[in-house]
C-alpha cells in the first residue's frame, strides 16, 4: 500500500510564515520523510499526551533545534497538522 501525505491549512499557513532558512530545512527533511517517516536523522517520536487526546497516534519530527512538525499517522495516511517551536506540544 502506498502512503498518502496530506497537510492541513494551518500547517501551510505556519509554513509560509517561517524564515527562508527554516523553509529550506523543512524541504530537506521532507525529502527524507517521504522515503521513511521514521528515518533516524528525523528524530521522529510519538507524543503520548497528544495521541491520548486525539485518540490516534500523533508524532513529531525534529526539523531544527526548536522547529517541529506534528503529524497524525492513520494506516498509510500521514497528515501534517502543525509546525513550530516546542509550543506546538501544548
Describe the structure.
With 90 residues, this protein is of the alpha+beta class. The chain has one domain (4-89): YaeB-like fold (2-Layer Sandwich), CATH 3.30.2310. It is 34% helix and 32% strand. The chain contains three helices and five strands. It has helices spanning 9-16, 20-35, 48-54; strands at residues 4-7, 45-46, 58-64, 67-74, 77-84. A five-stranded mixed β-sheet has the order 1-5-4-3-2. The model has no long low-confidence stretch (mean pLDDT 93).
Helix content: 25-40%
Q: How much strand?
A: 25-35%
| Major β-sheet profile | 5 strands, mixed
Which outline best applies?
A: globular
Tally of alpha and pi helices: 3
Reading off the top of the CATH hierarchy, the class is best stated as Alpha Beta
Name the CATH superfamily assignment.
RelE-like
Q: What is the H/E string?
A: EHHEHEEE
Quote the distance from N terminus to C terminus: 33 Å
| Radius of gyration (Å) | 12 Å
CATH topology (level 3) name: YaeB-like fold
Any key phrases for this structure?
90 residues; alpha+beta; YaeB-like fold; 34% helix
Amino acid at each position: 500500500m502506498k502512503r498518502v501525505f496530506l497537510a492541513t491549512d494551518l500547517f501551510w499557513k505556519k509554513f509560509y510564515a517561517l524564515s527562508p532558512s527554516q523553509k529550506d530545512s523543512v524541504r530537506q527533511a521532507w525529502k527524507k520523510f517521504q522515503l521513511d517517516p521514521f528515518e533516524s536523522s528525523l528524530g521522529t517520536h510519538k507524543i503520548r499526551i497528544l495521541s491520548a487526546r486525539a485518540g490516534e497516534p500523533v508524532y513529531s519530527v525534529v526539523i531544527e533545534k526548536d522547529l517541529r512538525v506534528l503529524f497524525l499517522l492513520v494506516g498509510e495516511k500521514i497528515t501534517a497538522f502543525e509546525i513550530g517551536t516546542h509550543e506546538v506540544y501544548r
